[in-house]
């Protein structure tokens, strides 16, 4: 699939969440939250099960069969175009994206609550990445070593579906105990009466503040919505969430791919790197942000100021995407074949013109010159040997000029059917000579840290700038805006920008373009940097206006009440006065 299509799948989560955000956040705020959460967990588990279905309903992975993509002038070669395209297993596989979309949709329907929302995905990257590395996709019926497949091979596919089955089982386990929680925990009412409202001053005389039963009926929904829409601080915080959500959602979908392409890493290794960086970065930023608000007892205006400072730092850190590695040398694409006479770059050359190579069969190999070839066939290799960790190729016509003209190449030896031969190419990615990966990961760590440092403070500011009776509904409305303007279009937009940097598309039998096989690293980095920087600047602007337009109830009153300076423990609440009929509140001696 194209990056745009995989982005569509990623957006399915947010589409599912978007459709149910308003009703569940409105009614869930006044009803049993454990009931809603447990139902969501169950639906999310079903989504995980649906997401794993394509593995069980489709045929074996193509490379699970014994296919030799070596140079041959025989029409019986399995990799020739007519034979490859005649296989039913290769038809309509791209339609499975709709099953993935349905699975993500159910994930979104069930996952509209905060539950390890930051650390969870990071742990998922680490565990899922290792699962891609440990087990081959058809591990039950196929031994990948017999096929010369290792987890460093570009055509290796790990057992991706197992983590979703585990997610389904865990959802069933968690569902039952969560459903047994009461509607409210003990002491909830007591804590609620002690809170001091910091709602934007426009709420001062509205039903959301005055009427304690406001929001319990469906007829209050339009009025409740209008109150929130007239709250400028709340609205600009929503726009901030949308711009930040667009960046985070896109990077969650494509950061492993960016690392894989830029630094020539295996898919499992790239996912592992993202998880290792995201756990301390996103998790640490989230917890520290919440700690700072609690430790220094920051008020709403001070919280937004703190977010503005962090946003300014995030703008500077977006320069991380300037770090880019040169493209790996690719014969016929970025570099010419050895001793190639024509100046026109093409994967077809004189050295492989008689090999009947199939452009549909992408199985890249790395030559001894550290140059990638579309397949062993396009490298002109005529002999193959299978070892425990890879396939080795020799007698490669496209490498012969290089071997003959060099006096310093030490070819490694391998055994094939008891005979020794010199290895000229391997079924692995060529190692990247770029050593910028540690710097990139460190910058990404800082980017995530400061991006998530404002996550809990901005959430706290959102809850404080609205009335108590609207907190749940306000979060629902905020996430609707975040979904529509941010997380739903984000994977599609970023996916399109990544596709624009493609320099070699996969050929398919129906003549449509498949997945991108090779990217222009510099163009990819430039595209990603441009949109990330733009969105970070927008976040800063929105935060500034949310702070500039905020008016607390205390500021609006413009005067201090005489009782504000009295020890809170000595104050009498209205409930206490009502319960004490003998107390004469007209007596001057009892006013203090």
UniProtKB/TrEMBL annotation:
It is a multi-pass membrane protein. InterPro entries: Kazal_dom, Kazal_dom_sf, MFS_trans_sf, OATP. It holds the Pfam family OATP. The chain crosses the membrane at residues 7-29, 35-56, 105-127, 159-181, 233-255, 270-293, 300-323, 436-461, 473-498, 528-550. It is found in: Cell membrane. GO terms for cellular component: basolateral plasma membrane. Residues 345-397 form the Kazal-like domain. The keyword Ion transport applies. One of its GO terms (biological process) is monoatomic ion transport. SUPFAM superfamilies: Kazal-type serine protease inhibitors, MFS general substrate transporter. Keywords: Cell membrane, Disulfide bond, Ion transport, Membrane, Transmembrane, Transmembrane helix, Transport. GO terms for molecular function: sodium-independent organic anion transmembrane transporter activity. Belongs to the organo anion transporter (TC 2.A.60) family. This is Solute carrier organic anion transporter family member.
């Amino acid at each position: 699939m194209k990056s745009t299509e995989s982005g569509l799948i990623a957006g399915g989560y947010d589409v599912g969440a978007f459709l149910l955000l308003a009703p569940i956040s409105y009614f869930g705020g006044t009803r049993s939250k454990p009931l809603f959460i447990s139902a969501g967990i169950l639906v999310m588990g079903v989504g995980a099960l649906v997401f794993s279905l394509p593995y069980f309903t489709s045929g074996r992975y193509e490379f699970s069969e014994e296919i030799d993509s070596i140079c041959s002038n025989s029409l019986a070669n399995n990799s020739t175009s007519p034979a490859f395209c005649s296989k039913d297993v290769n038809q309509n596989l791209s339609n499975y994206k709709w099953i993935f979309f349905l699975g993500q949709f159910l994930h979104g329907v069930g996952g509209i609550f905060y539950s390890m929302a930051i650390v969870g995905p990071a742990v998922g990257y680490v565990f899922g990445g290792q699962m891609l590395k440990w087990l081959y996709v058809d591990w039950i019926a196929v031994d990948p070593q017999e096929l010369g497949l290792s987890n460093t091979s570009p055509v290796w596919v790990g057992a991706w579906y197992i983590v979703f089955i585990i997610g389904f089982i865990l959802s069933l386990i968690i569902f039952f105990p969560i459903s047994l929680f009461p509607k409210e925990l003990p002491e909830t009412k007591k804590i609620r009466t002690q809170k001091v409202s910091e709602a934007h001053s426009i709420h001062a005389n509205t039903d959301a503040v005055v009427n304690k039963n406001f929001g319990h009926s469906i007829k209050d929904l339009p009025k409740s919505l209008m109150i929130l829409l007239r709250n400028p601080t709340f609205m600009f915080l929503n726009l901030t969430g949308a711009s930040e959500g667009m960046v985070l959602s896109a990077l969650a979908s494509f950061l492993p791919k960016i690392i894989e392409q830029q630094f020539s890493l295996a898919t499992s290794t790239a996912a592992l790197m993202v998880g290792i960086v995201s756990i301390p970065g996103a998790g640490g930023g989230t917890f520290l942000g919440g700690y700072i608000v609690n430790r220094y007892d920051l008020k709403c205006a001070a919280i937004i100021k703190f977010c503005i400072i962090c946003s300014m730092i995030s703008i500077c850190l977006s320069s991380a995407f300037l770090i880019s590695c040169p493209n790996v040398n690719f014969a016929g694409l970025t570099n010419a074949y050895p001793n190639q006479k024509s100046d026109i770059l093409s994967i077809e050359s004189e050295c492989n013109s008689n090999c009947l190579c199939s452009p549909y069969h992408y199985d890249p190999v790395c030559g001894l010159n550290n140059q990638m070839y579309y397949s062993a066939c396009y490298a002109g290799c005529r002999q193959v040997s299978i070892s425990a960790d890879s396939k080795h190729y020799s007698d490669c016509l496209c490498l012969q000029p290089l071997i003959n003209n060099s006096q310093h190449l030490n070819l490694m030896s391998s055994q094939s059917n008891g005979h020794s031969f010199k290895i000229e190419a391997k079924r692995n990615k060529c190692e990247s000579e770029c050593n910028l990966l540690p710097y990139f990961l460190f910058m990404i760590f800082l980017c995530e840290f400061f991006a998530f440092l404002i996550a809990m403070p901005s959430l706290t500011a959102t809850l404080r700038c609205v009335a108590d009776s609207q907190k749940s509904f306000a979060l629902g409305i905020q996430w609707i805006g975040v979904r529509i303007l941010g997380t739903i279009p984000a994977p599609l937009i970023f996916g399109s920008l990544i596709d624009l940097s493609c320099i070699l598309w996969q050929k398919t039998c129906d003549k449509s373009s498949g997945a991108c096989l090779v990217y222009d690293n510099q163009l990819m980095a430039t595209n990603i940097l441009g949109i990330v920087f733009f969105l970070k600047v927008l976040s800063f602007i929105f935060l500034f206006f949310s702070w500039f337009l905020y008016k607390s109830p205390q500021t609006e009153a413009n005067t201090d009440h005489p009782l504000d300076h009295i020890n809170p423990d000595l104050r009498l609440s209205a409930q206490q006065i009502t319960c004490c009929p003998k107390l004469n509140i007209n007596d001057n001696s009892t006013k203090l």
